[in-house]
Amino acid sequence: MKLFNSMTRQKDEFIPITPGEVKMYSCGPTVYNYFHIGNARPFIVFDLLRRYFEYRGYKVTFVQNFTDIDDKVINKANDEGVTYDVIADRYIKEYFVDAEGLGIRRASIHPRATETMDAIIDIVRKLIESGHAYATPEGDVYFRTKTFEDYGKLSHQPLEDLQAGARISVGERKEDPMDFAVWKAAKPGEPFWDAPWGKGRPGWHIECSAMVNKYLGETIDIHGGGLDLTFPHHENEIAQSECANGCTFAHYWVHNGFLTIDNEKMSKSKGNFFMVRDAAQAYGYETIRMFMLSAHYRTPLNYSEESLKMSKTSLERLYESRNNLEFRIEKAVGNETTAEEAEKLTALGAYKNKFIDAMDDDLNTADAMSAIFELVRDINAYTGAHQDATRAFLTAAHGLFMELTGVLGIAQKHDDTVDPEADRIEELIAQRQAAKKNKDFAEADRIRDLLLNDMGVLIKDTRQGTQWSRVSQ
Ligand code: AMP
Ligand code: ZN
Asked: What H or E segment, with its residue span, contains residue 4?
């Protein structure tokens, strides 16, 4: 498998540190609000990467943090007159609600900064002792950037450029403008933790370095995050970790491209964002996941109503095909495939190869998705032309469909429960049948649209009668 590595700026063959295992870390959210569609992109991308490694037989340990203490969390807590942990607890809970909706599996570990304080203090101490960091009389601790000669290697920026862009803000007592905070001395009224150099709280970058050390070790396979984190966040993580441990921090650096709106990066500071929660109300969570996977993870992806609608339609096509197979499996007989069917199944296997080739090529979900749609088209054509297809064939085709869509985490929803609106839906379908019989096609169409637009129910007329299914919720 090849992955584009921001460090080498090329697609590198993935070779794990331990054969058959993957240790990966991805920077998670700062928990002071719901997350927006832009934030959802890395969460979905790294969930996908993890799923794909697992599909290929790797044992994956995946860590994604929660930044639960920083200025934004503290400000929000002050606005509401509560303590920071009330805010953090609330939005961690809400993160899991949206993440589950989006089909993002829980990471192996979701550490919080405030629960990793021992490891944070430990690494800061190591850096001070080795001269890579220094405490000021006020109790701030800064990383001495010039002591790390590889600084800039990830973002490929010459040191002079970085130097020219660096500033010392009012109140900072840095030795050099390029130095950055690893520990911030406590300010009145703010939460703080005790450390040998004084009370305070960690800087943002240090928590990731400490968490990687604590949960994954000194060197990991993959470190991920959004493109905007390359500099300074990831550059600083590398400096801290490599100076503290004396070895390479991460072998592969994977960055997702931006989610844009009107071709501008979606961000909280610009105010041009949509919360996942609100978009899910309009289109369904799964449509958002489908939309994210429609493009390769490194290309910019523009959010628009039109593209969301297209993703919704695509997803409906997948469910329609799956529902059709399941409906047919119920009715079909034959526990063994015919010779013709066996041949067809072998031919269908080509789509799986195409899917794997696409995913092996730096997680090309756009091509992987095309392979799935080709599979679906082929299955539909075959089953349409072979109304007597055996249960064995239909089950195998269904299995292949579920296997590939399962890797992407789409079209997997199971509806074991009786739909609470089933009676009403059946009644509307009967009314539509009656309208059609009376040649009142306008009424028949009205009912069809009402089912789809107001109730999210897709209907399909087949030789076996009208089938219905819930779409993308
Ligand atoms: P934050 O909570 O702002 O620290 O961001 C969490 C994650 O979302 C980070 O990995 C960011 O790089 C990523 N991110 C933020 N905005 C966007 C965007 N518009 N497109 C893609 N990723 C983003
Ligand atoms: Zn990080």
From this structure: strand 2-5
Instruction: Give the tens place of pLDDT for each residue, 122-173.
Output: 999 999 999 999 999 999 999 999 999 999 999 999 888 888 888 888 888 9
- Which three-class secondary structure state does DSSP give residue 436? helix
Q: State which of 27, 64, 95, 228 you would mutate to test the pocket of ligand 1, scoring each by most atoms of that ligand within 8 A of its C-beta.
A: 228
Question: Structure pTM?
Answer: 0.88
Q: How far is CA 31 from CA 206, 313, 389, in A?
A: 17, 33, 52
Contact 461, 446 (CB under 8 A): no
Report how far residue 146's alpha carbon sits from residue 54's, in angstroms, rounded to the nearest whole number: 40
Give the pLDDT confidence of 297-313 residue by residue, as tens digits.
Answer: 999 999 999 999 999 99
End-to-end CA distance of the chain: 33
Please choose, from the candidates 103, 423, 468, the residue with its C-alpha nearest in 3D space to the C-alpha of residue 284.
Answer: 103
H or E stretch including 200? strand 200-202
- Asked whether the CA dihedral 412, 413, 418, 424 is positive or negative, the reply is negative
Name the closest-CA residue to atom 9, ligand 1: 226
Protein residues with CB under 6 Å of any ligand 1 atom: 27, 29-30, 38-39, 41-42, 225-226, 228-229, 256, 258-259, 265-267
